[in-house]
């Protein structure tokens, strides 16, 4: 079963290459297209790190640390 972080690993290159490629094909300057794709990939990474951080799943599930 694919989890959130597995989907995120697939979404990062897809957002960068897919968005940049789509905008470039649509006639947008390649520099602007890559910047927009990079911002989208950065937003996904920031969401994974700061909004849905990996430790929040452990806290919700009731896991205790070994410390």
TrEMBL record:
- What domain of life? Archaea
InterPro entries with a match to the protein in the record: DUF8015 (IPR058328)
TM region positions: 32-51
Q: Which UniProt keywords apply?
A: Membrane, Transmembrane, Transmembrane helix
State what protein this is by name.
Uncharacterized protein
The organism's lineage is:
Archaea, Methanobacteriati, Methanobacteriota, Stenosarchaea group, Halobacteria
């Amino acid at each position: 079963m694919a989890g959130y972080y597995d989907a995120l690993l697939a979404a990062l290159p897809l957002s960068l290459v897919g968005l940049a490629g789509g905008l470039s094909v649509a006639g947008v300057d390649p520099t602007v297209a890559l910047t927009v794709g990079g911002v989208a990939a950065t937003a996904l990474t920031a969401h994974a790190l700061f909004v849905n951080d990996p430790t929040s799943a452990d806290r919700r599930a009731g896991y205790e640390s070994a410390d």
